[in-house]
Design brief:
The chain is an all-alpha fold.
Length: 91
């Protein structure tokens, strides 16, 4: 059995939460309670996985890329809405 299937299942399970997190950030436009340290640690983890998969390519790299993109989107949105709140654009 190909061991990559278990890695893929793990990536799908981890990745399932990011769309909900992004949706919540967009809907409430209030990043209070979101930890940038946590988001960056997760992003660094996905980037490390991508680098590893580049050295040993297989199809699971697509899941790493997708998850990294979603976390990057959440990081972008959190920063955007924090700046907007600091400037008084959002209340």
């Amino acid at each position: 059995m190909n061991i990559n299937i278990f890695e893929a299942i793990m990536m799908v399970c981890f990745g399932a939460s990011w769309p909900a997190s992004i949706y919540k950030t967009i809907k409430v436009k209030n990043p209070v309670g979101k930890s940038m340290i946590f988001l960056w640690l997760v992003e660094i983890g996905y980037i490390s996985g991508i680098i590893y998969k580049i050295s040993r390519p297989d199809w699971v790299i697509a899941l790493y890329l997708l998850n990294a993109l979603m976390v990057g989107t959440d990081i972008f949105l959190v920063n955007k809405y924090r700046r907007m709140r600091e400037r008084g654009i959002l209340k």
